[in-house]
Design brief:
The protein has 203 residues and is an alpha/beta fold. 36% of the residues lie in helices and 14% in strands. It has seven helices and six strands. Strands 2-3-4-1-5-6 form a six-stranded mixed beta sheet, with helices on both faces. A hairpin with a 2-residue loop joins β5 and β6. The two termini are 28 Å apart.
């Protein structure tokens, strides 16, 4: 349900544009019955900023709450060297996982997350999400997927994620992005387009 509009000005603007609910909340408009997250698949959610992508991800999280749901944005980064963030002595596996997200430099391995750039920290969270999924396959979720990366790096990470999903059919990914240039790299089985509460689903 949308939050009630409490001010007179907000109500007037809503009437001008034919909006009956708080424009910051689209949960009452989103119909997710047509969206099914199957193992081995990628679901890509696109749409302009503010169009309802994040709200849709939250609703999907409620719908599929019985599955292991690994949210990249919620992964904590400890103040230890990057190679120690995984808590594993299998360094080959750790380095391979870092390589999948484009973190392949020795100095990156030895720095702490605080010493990395914003884009590198995001990729480290992605690597940690993949590591957790390796131990317990489930659904990897990333809002603003690759948003802080340059477009070339974003496409590289997207291709690597697609390969990882293909190699581990127990995994699935639900990704939200305002950019539509990642579709070819991700090859999503499900495309969801958000348009300020209304959604269209293509499989």
């Amino acid at each position: 349900m949308g939050t009630a509009i409490r001010s007179k000005r907000a109500k007037k603007v809503a009437e001008m544009f034919g909006v009956e609910a708080d424009p910051g909340s689209y949960a009452g408009f989103v119909d997710i019955a047509a969206i099914d997250i199957r193992p081995g698949t990628v679901t890509l959610v696109t749409g302009a900023s503010g169009s309802g992508k994040s709200t849709l991800l939250r609703e999907l999280g409620r719908k599929f709450r019985t599955r292991a749901w690994v949210d990249v944005s919620r992964i904590r980064l400890d103040d230890v060297p990057v190679v120690d963030c995984f808590g594993s002595d299998d360094l080959v596996a750790v380095l391979m996982t870092l390589g999948r997200v484009g973190l392949g430099e020795v100095w990156t391995y030895l720095r702490t997350p605080a010493e990395l750039s914003e884009g590198q920290r995001w990729r480290l969270r992605m690597a940690l999400a993949l590591w957790r999924m390796r131990e317990k396959p489930g659904v990897l979720v990333a809002d603003e997927f690759c948003a802080v990366l340059d477009r070339v790096t974003a496409k590289v990470v997207a291709r690597c994620l697609r390969k990882t999903i293909d190699a581990h059919p127990g995994m699935a990914a639900v990704l939200a992005s305002p950019h539509e240039d990642l579709e070819a790299a991700l090859r999503p089985e499900v495309m969801v387009r958000c348009d300020f509460g209304a959604i269209s689903v293509q499989t």
